[in-house]
Amino acid sequence: MNVYSFLDNSAKNHPDNIAVVYRGQRVDYTTLLGLVNRLSNVLSKYGLKKGDRVILLLDNSIDYVMSYFAILKVGGVVVALNTDTTDRDVRYVFDSCQPKGVITNKLCCQYLPDDEGVVFKIILDETRIIVEEEVSMVEVDEKEDIAQIIYTSGTVGKPKGVMLTHLNLRSNAESIVEYLHLTSDDKIMVVLPFFYSYGNSLLLTHILAGGTLIISHQFVFLNKMLEMMIEEKATGFAGVPSSYAMLLHKSNVRGLKFPHLRYMTCAGGALSPANIVEMKKILPDVDYCAMYGQTEATARLSYLEPEMWLRKLGSAGKAIPGVKIRVVDKNGKDAAIGEVGEIAAQGLNIMKGYWGQPEETQDVLRDNWLHTGDIARIDEDGYIFIAGRQSDMIKAGAFRIHPQEIEDIITEISDVAECAVTGIPDEIMGEMIKAFVVLKADTSLIDKDILRYCKKNLPEYKIPRAVEFVSSLPKTTSGKIKRYVLKMGGRDEEGIGNSCPSR
Predict the structure, then answer these.
(1) How does pLDDT run across 129-154, given as a tens digit for each residue?
(2) What is the DSSP track for 274-324?
(3) Are 423 and 431 in contact (CB under 8 A)?
(4) Across all residues in the chain, what is the average pLDDT?
(5) Among 122, 157, 192, 246, which residue carries the largest CB count within 10 Å?
(6) What DSSP state is assigned to residue 365?
């Protein structure tokens, strides 16, 4: 099945449902299908063939959704990029995947190489698509043919192009629709970028279900976004941990009512138990669903059922339908209950590999399992508790310490908004633990307050040796904390700013 069929089927079954709400515009499925068909015809006339890559450099918008499905319809491969970028980053992707064309807007043209060597460049705010005739959908081998390449955020090393087949995308979308019980009545508030695997899953699942994508660019203006949720009768909200931290500490969420909100999901990192409890106090009738996944797994690997949120607080749940998960030791054997090991996963959602990087592919796809590089333990009931990335491990003397446990303890302090923990060089111990703390407004905590609380709740070897108060934490555009930036003194691997000023 070509993933374009998601849109085609929903247009047949729910023609009058609103597919996308964006900046005052409301596009139903019939209209969206017409837009996609017209653009796909243009792409076909440019000679786009099955397997040809197309750079999609657009913000979340109706144009993005239209372009995404138009590329898929003619068998092309979507390569969506962050618009908050640099010409160097774009050049890297051009050199890597050798695209046949680009779909963008006038603002983002500044990032395109002068000698891009592409066959076509469609600038949507300058191009009138007037071709009316329709081209047929290109048939694909869903198991083998690539639908999308998502370049990882590159928190460690250069970004890798994750190759996702039509089967990868379909299987993961169908699984998410199943466990979230999504229907054509669902309306998701979209604040996550579509170029990111979590945002991409929102796009695919709701188009598959015939639901509505409510696109907001106003997450920096939190209260306006919340008002939009109420006005548009949003049934779902999806965010990363920093999204929830901002809602709790920088919005009027406590003073508003959301009568239509059915569920909230969090992925892209573990939300601290303290913040989960606080959200449930504010919105007791809303289901909260913790999720875990990777771009290499299309999006999702596990979820925690809403009814288990209190009993398994802090857990990432169990494998989603159609996926198997193990925690393995260094010898590849199943770890004992409670023992820390690496998460390995198997399912139809697991990527085909990294574009043009066979050795890196073999490093993570071994014995028909994806080795995620994430460290976790499984309890006696089979629930997964993630400790962090292998690359985030702090090596202090003989100890191997995962920062997540320390971060969770520190964010229990009522005056703390966010926290990140990392290891910094130490001549004697190799590394020492340092905590970077963002405080809520109008608070007066000092480092001794943080350390005192840690001493009450952590063993001696896990207590930070230093605390630095910062105004914000460096994050990727998808909201993940860049621990390596903190480790390097507030500078990224290119030496570009991202500093964390002291309080």
Answers:
(1) 655 566 789 999 999 999 999 998 64
(2) HHHHHHHHHSTTSEEEEEE--GGGSS-SEEE-GGGTTTTTT--BEEPTTEE
(3) yes
(4) 89
(5) 192
(6) E
CA quadruple 394, 400, 405, 407: dihedral, nearest 10: -10
**Which helix (DSSP H) or strand (DSSP E) does residue 325 occupy?**
strand 323-328
What is the reported pTM?
A: 0.82
pLDDT tens-digit readout, 344-366? 999 999 999 999 999 999 999 99
Spatial distance between the Cα atoms of 24 and 450, rounded to a whole number of angstroms? 46
Letter string b/e over residues 319-329, b meaning 16 or more CB atoms within 10 A of that residue's CB: bbeebebbbee
The answer to whether the beta carbons of residues 266 and 241 sit under 8 Å apart is yes
Q: Which domains does the chain have, with CATH numbers?
A: 1-140 (3.40.50.980), 166-347+360-389 (3.40.50.12780), 393-487 (3.30.300.30)
| Structure token digits, residue 135 | 């081209």
Whole-angstrom CA distances from 282 to 217, 248, 285, 288 are 24, 9, 9, 12
Residues near 187 by beta carbon (within 8 Å), at least 6 away in sequence: 211, 212, 214, 232, 233, 234, 235, 236, 260
Over residues 40-53, the mean pLDDT reads 96
Q: Which amino acid is at 141?
A: D
